[in-house]
């Protein structure tokens, strides 16, 4: 694996490294960790990769790696959003599969351009909507698909954070509040899109319409930092559901509180990212169960992505690693139906663009089309 | 105290009895517990009140009680919403103060009529927005008023229930889904209005605009059973805040999950009705505290409404009793500034009417005026 | 009801008043609230009872009340432990049933004397082991009696408090650390005995042997403030179980954290006093359920002692009131099999005396006999 | 790294692999994964290591690896307890540092023999008491060392599991209930020793005396499966504390519920393994704080062993990896004062042996000496 981005000070670069290598199917061997050659080299040192394979440019990496017998087999893109398209374009042109961080790109137009390139290249492509990698998220998805809730009527997905309630200080914060680097969306693109994907992923439904109320609450902020989006979902079978998506980065005291609740005719289900090894399950007759990760009552999707027995907590890195395990399967030509791919990336960008535009225009309910 | 409503099968009548009598300042001695004389008598038996003072009509009660030296000093109205106005009108005409269940009336027009009567009568009047009676709700209010959060930026108040996810069966359910008895609102009037009051009560802010998305999800339902309302708040000092109110009665597995989160420039605060003896408090620098009811760190408002030391859980009945303690103070001519009164009742009805109408019309953002 | 004890500054007197009156079967009308006449009068004022019935001595109360047509029907004893025997003796001699706070008396000899008096009098007698009044405690008992755990193998009951970690200051604390008023036990008599009763009450088993390790941790303390007791239980059917009882009043940060876990061949069960409306239930095959108070899945014992629907928290006062409801039934000659009585009081005193003596002597395992 | 043990069906082998490689300082390259050559080869395939380096015997591994320029630098021993001594003896004889799973050996005599060998060899040596690797465990330790609790008075450490409540079926269970492979202790050696180490690690105190009550509850079990141990601790400064250690493998519904509570003159602290990213902190004046992993309020020990920001849960594998990071530091000659070493291993064995013997003999309090 070659990494694009993830230089000194990045949070997500090391996370990708941990995740990709956890199951020993993938090894980070090269990278353009920074557009600054010195910083790229420093990153290689931190990652303990060969300094000779820390490149200053994409071109350099692709040329040098192609020439090696043990050259990289794919790239992972972990740089800020505005780099996603050019990086992916170059990788695809070099014949390399691509795993990219979310959101897909900085703008919807870029997303469509990238979609064309991916389709034309016919190469494996994945998007790291991390939270879909949690075993109990997959358990929830499987149970719902098997009809355990009956028809879904209501979805509430929340993603509260508080770390941008003050001034945006530091590498992580600065690019996220800068339209030039983050793109269209602030909070909606950084975390709202995770919540959006999670709701569709677990429910098996698709958002058809939305009403967005995005605010830039902290004085001086150019992008949204607090989002409420009303949703309408539809199922392939014609079913319909109501929904709400709340995402915020100004809620002091919240860390990374993604949680989702789904309610159907026959039951309800709750999952919380900060206590990811428990899934709550309720039925119409008053039964209320806690399903534990690693426990014997789980289905095959969840068990196959669990590494330890019940009571031995797994977390964010293990969930992330599950996406890379899926991607590795795809590289080997095996099916990996749960890995978020191009369509999920595109839907996410359409969600961001539609919400931002509808909120700006005060447009009320608008359709979501991709 | 004389009770109007609360006949056999009612949930809330006994609750008012428990609450009113808990501090021994008030005693239930008479009532028109039902418009059916036999059922009224049966209720007197259940309440252990004098059967001779279980009346078949309001007129009978007011006439007989006026004639007694130990006649009732006020009435409490606990019947379905459409009875509130006639009952209150008769009581006020008889010169009696009134405590009434929420919402104030069945329609906004009735509310305005009642407001005129109350103002003209100049008698004590209270509305049982129960949740404002919890000690930690009052603690939250006091801390916010003292500036602990700085300017409030965001309020999320949720009131999920699941008991109407199936067919509406039984006395409690049936009138709540019947427009003739419940009035304008279903879920929004039954529990949404509690959430609305709580948000204004704790924050000290007022809702100025709202955008409502109300749904009748269970097939055949005439009134809303699932509500999302976007809010804008304003403070007396010109401050502004964003907000969301979620209320639902179709969320299977939810019992009575009222919870509120308030976020300001300097901190965040969370309270949950089902674990009412803990208040979560967070600050911008990462401190996260749990404040316990009965503990020594509470302010006077909270301590004065707590009956047991920390660790001895108090609940719904004790919170409700705190409103009656406030009302008793008012009857004695003492100040009871935290008791919800006519204005709170009117604002609640305006909220219900505005939300129902705006949602029906697909009106987008509308002002909330009283 | 006449009250003995509960004067100004007492915590438990008002609690008994709330509890006794909650269901309107009992009314506090008289009392010897203090051995100081002025303080007794002040208490009557606080309780809102007739000042003429606030007596300075037991003799005065019994004489005056006997002379009234509406005189008291029973007494409740809420004074410190060393008063229990003389107060009960006088009440029984006056022909009055007795409800008394735990522990039964200050010493085991007193307990045996009282037992003789109660048996001779043949009058209703109850002991307020409060925690046995919680609906979910009764649910747990009923489920276990019905075999839901299979044979019980292990019981862990803990009662951590922290309020005596510093110096014992104030009326509540002072008598509890004074052997002259508290009797044999400090922590073991104040809260350990609650835990002991709860373990026997829920499990249906009896403690046959114990090994006690009691400490007086805070410098200068004459009585124990931190207790560990190993237990052996036996069932009527010859079954045996291991157990541990932990009680402490020096565990800073603990409020009133009574909790019990019972494990059998087929399942496990957990109940916590500070969140009393949930009961955890697990089975050998990995199922983990939360049972909620007020919910439809409860048995008749629990439902009959619940006043509100699920999600409306009930607490300490409601649990306490359930004991008085049982006592009122007993006064009416109805069965009240769950009300702790003389035998429970005696067993508690035997537990305290045996644990204190065995710990002092470093005796290892000793039998518990009554 | 070469692995000894960890063949097909083992739980802990893959865990060591994940943990050792997570920070990319260590790589698993060889192993005697099983004494069966075919199974050793199968394990190499599962671990994705070179099949040529999957050896059938220790001798073969040490000989072959010594001959390679890139031969292993140390071994990790993950086989059942009775293998620890012979494996470590061979490795030390081959001049290789050793990391070993706990308990140190199967018997105390073996432990002393091993201690002699380790001291004579002068090579780095570590014991994987996993739970000491959690960041918040290290935070707790640092805060206590800095005096935040004042003198510690009481320690309660519990380790409940339920997976051996039924028959012991499967590779994991079978050897643990077999004295020939597990050694002296069942539950006490498998998990009790973790709890013992954790208590000493966090508190900085040492156990001086214990009273053990070990039971073999499940019919037919030869080793203990349910343990209660009373403890006395002493500090280097002469301070003393009381303690209790509870460990069980028959508590149905418990997964891996290790938790520890420490109480001092000035405060109390609680950590739970199943929700390892929160630490509860209470003070004598009623303050109750939650400290979050990854948050800015942590000290350097905790921050240096955290890989993600607050709200991104880390778990068991990351904690385990922290021990390997310490071990890697030690291999480089850097200080790693928090890595459990020979003395911790010896103390653990002394604890097991003393508890087993004292319980069998009904000996009451006995000293713990190493």
Automatic annotation (TrEMBL), chains A, B, C, D:
**Per the database record, which ranges form the Gfo/Idh/MocA-like oxidoreductase N-terminal domain?**
2-128
What superkingdom heads the lineage? Bacteria
Domain GFO/IDH/MocA-like oxidoreductase as annotated: residue spans: 137-269
InterPro entries hit by this protein: Gfo/Idh/MocA-like_OxRdtase_N, Gfo/Idh/MocA_oxidoreduct, GFO_IDH_MocA-like_dom, NAD(P)-bd_dom_sf
Query: What is the protein's given name?
Result: Gfo/Idh/MocA family protein
| Species this chain originates from | Novosphingobium pokkalii
What is this organism's lineage?
Answer: Bacteria, Pseudomonadati, Pseudomonadota, Alphaproteobacteria, Sphingomonadales
